[in-house]
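tool_log.txt
---
The assistant was asked to compare two proteins side by side. It first ran the structure predictor on the initial sequence, then on the second. Raw inputs and outputs are pasted verbatim so the downstream comparison step can read them without reformatting.
(1)
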Amino acid sequence: MPDKIEIAEGDITTLHVDAVVNAANEALAPGGGVCGAIHRAAGPEFADACAKLGGCATGEAKVTDGFGLPARYVIHTVGPVWGGGERGEGMLLANCYRNALTLAAEHDLASVAFPAISTGIYGFPPDRAALIAVRTVRETLPDVPGIARVVFCCFGAESRDLHQAALAATAPRG
């Protein structure tokens, strides 16, 4: 079976996938980084759709239409703010990826693109976050067989390299 996971460097708002994942804030309001870029690219109706969802808890996921994006849907997930690693941040980050994939499967989506959740303003160490992201996706894919393609869309070469290293480190042996 070929690997369903790809690593790409670029702008997540331009990807032609069924869903892009928004590294959202709890209010699902326009913000900075990936969240701000998705809100700008999706257009003004997007913010209205987000507001109707009533927010999102850390580690959970919710879905809206993609509006002006090439992606049909946006899956919103709220990553943890890094506090030194002693407050369950790793588990919460893993939940973001797991819950987003589960939600994608529930909506019969075959392709999903993730940013590097929590590694911007939320301060999660990028190397640790990449390993958690790739490991969680690998562990979750067997439970969501309809998902044929997962893209880690990295904003910059450093993030791309960290995700490629995580992909190699978590590759099935044998």
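(2)
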Amino acid sequence: MLEVKHLKTIIALENTGSLVEASESLYMTQSALSHQIKDLEDRLNTALFIRKTRPLRFTVAGERVLKLAKSVLPMFTNTERDISRLLSGNAGRLHMAIECHSCFQWLMPAIDVFRDHWPEIELDLTSGFSFAPLPALKRGDVDLVVTSDPQVLSGIHYEPLFSYQPMLAVSHHHALADKAYIEPEDLSDETLITYPVEQERLDIFNLFLDPAGVSPHAIRHAELTIMMLQLVASGRGVAALPNWALTEYLEKDYILAKPLGEDSCWTTLYAAIRIEQLEMPYMVEFLKDAKASSFQQLKGIKIVN
């Protein structure tokens, strides 16, 4: 009567606390998820959670199914991974480079899960600020690059992770604080605080400023997101960052965030991988873990259609 997909759905509902977020984490439409839940409740002849509560609350029957899911699903996952290891051998390397410190927020939980299940894989993680990570990937120096700036390189595949909205962070007292959205010309007199990478690798330039032919008055660099936002909050400039990287600071009312353009800019974060490694079982598993972790950890992101 119960199927593995039902158990995965119950776990997703507990992890996210809502039907909308659960559907995103499962890469399903909300309608399809609702239909699946109704089918399960019809099979069991009982409700599994209390409607219109946030976070979602399970009934006694739902708690029992949740307990079963937590017990059984790890056994399925471990068995699948054990078989994958048998097929792929016991050696491997996954050296990663990221182009944004904010990625640690969701990437580290994915790495922790991966390390537990693939202890024989040599893991390494570095920032891509000090070198050009995509050419390094092509050379074989690294095995995966997290980037929002895909470049056409032979032998490189870009796996979409999720879509996000770049936003402009400003202080509460900034002249732009009352604007509904930011126009490129608004930044012509501003100090723009960015990560220390080439301009063409930054969303604010390649999606917003460069197409409009606008340059900021000055550019200031900071390596850490918190350093950038401290400068923003103190009125030293403005910074363009992903919406999910700003969530914590917006909830604390530390800064304000404004959309870039009247229609808002959206872009996609990718995992760049050499094509010959794309089908390797441990790479497949890591990408699965990374996508799942991003939708569990981050707010405001979307599934890539």
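---
observation on (2): The domain at 166-259 is CATH 3.40.190.10 (D-Maltodextrin-Binding Protein; domain 2). The chain has three domains: 4-86, 91-161+269-297, 166-259.
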